[in-house]
Specification:
Layout lengths: L5 H12 L5 H4 L28 H10 L1 H4 L1 H21 L2 H6 L1 H10 L15 H16 L10 H5 L2 H14 L9 H19 L3 H5 L2 H7 L7 E5 L9 H4 L21 H5 L5 E5 L9 H19 L1
Antiparallel strand pairs: 1-2
Helix pairs in contact: 1-7, 3-5, 3-8, 7-11, 8-13, 10-11
């Protein structure tokens, strides 16, 4: 079966997440029953067009209210974490590669013709810090006198929220400009910086700053959908690595945290060595030296047989 064009799938989900057209005349957020459902990708709850909740924002919100609401907050946390786990198990970072609206925006920006660069791998660990402290620790520990915390990642970092909620709401309701403070200008500066970097670095936000993508990436090895590499058939042509937009080493990093499941490697492999399988079995761990050695040995064997 021929795989669908990824961009059309991404556009479909971006539109699905933002189908609340009533904001055009109501000039207000949608607060109906769908807003209690988490959308898999990063899509701001406060966007006027958003139909669903953002799982990352919902997680921070429920953690921030833990001391104040007690058991009610625990129920909310259970629901949100359960939703994220289900998304992770069934899709992993397929969410990032095929579903997330902000991922689509980053890829469109990267299409702008200019010199491109490889993102330093050391920066990939920034999103681990953001997940632990800004998403989990700070909302629980830094609370007001009444016991309510803040959504620190949304408040200080998330560029999707600035674009979809901050700027969109200001355009829709200019009177909100009276509420703008210095924090908003920080978020605007960060948004411009991230979007600019996305022109030069493929999915800069996903690689460096996105805690949600990190969470889903942790399920890549244990989820239902995994990439499988057939060692014996490999031609050692390295096309899979050349077409990987995330710059991953293949096969060692096929199911790594950074793999967004774009399937470029699967479609680009001339020998069809890479497959997408549906299984709960843990993925094979590759030793880079052994796998590369085997690939070269296979290539030499094939060369000898043709002589």
């Amino acid at each position: 079966m021929k795989l669908p064009k990824r961009k059309f799938v991404q556009l479909f989900f971006a539109l699905l997440a933002n189908t609340n057209v009533s904001f055009l005349w109501q000039k207000a957020l949608y607060r109906g029953p769908f807003k209690g459902v988490c959308f898999p990708g990063l899509n701001c709850y406060s966007c006027p067009a958003a139909l669903f909740a953002c799982p990352l924002g919902a997680l921070q919100q429920s953690l921030a209210s833990l001391r104040l609401l007690g058991t009610q907050a625990v129920s909310a946390i259970t629901y949100v974490v359960g939703s994220i786990v289900l998304f992770g198990l069934f899709m992993g970072r397929i969410v990032c590669g095929w579903v997330c609206p902000f991922g689509l925006l980053q890829e469109l920006l990267y299409k702008i013709r200019t010199q491109k660069f490889a993102c330093p791998r050391i920066l990939y660990y920034v999103k681990y810090i953001l997940l632990v402290f800004f998403v989990i620790v700070l909302p629980i520990t830094l609370v007001s006198e009444i016991g309510y915390g803040k959504v620190w990642f949304c408040r200080l970092v998330c560029p999707a929220g600035t674009l979809e909620a901050g700027l969109f709401n200001l355009a829709l309701r200019p009177e909100l400009s009276a509420l703008v403070k210095s924090l908003f200008y920080w978020k605007i500066a960060l948004l411009i910086t991230v979007l600019t970097l996305c022109v030069f670095y493929f999915r800069f936000f996903c690689k460096v700053l996105c805690p949600l993508g990190l969470i889903y990436g942790l399920f890549n090895k244990v989820g239902f959908f995994k990439l499988k590499w057939q060692n014996r058939a490999c031609l050692d042509c390295d096309i899979c690595e050349k077409v990987c937009p995330m710059g991953l080493k293949i096969p060692e990093e096929l199911n790594s945290v950074e793999c967004i499941r774009c399937l470029n490697c699967l479609k680009g492999c001339p020998a069809k060595v890479i497959e997408l399988e549906f299984s709960l079995i843990l993925t094979e761990r590759f030793d880079s030296r052994k796998s590369i050695g085997k690939r070269k040995l296979c290539a030499k064997t094939d060369e000898g047989l043709t002589k």
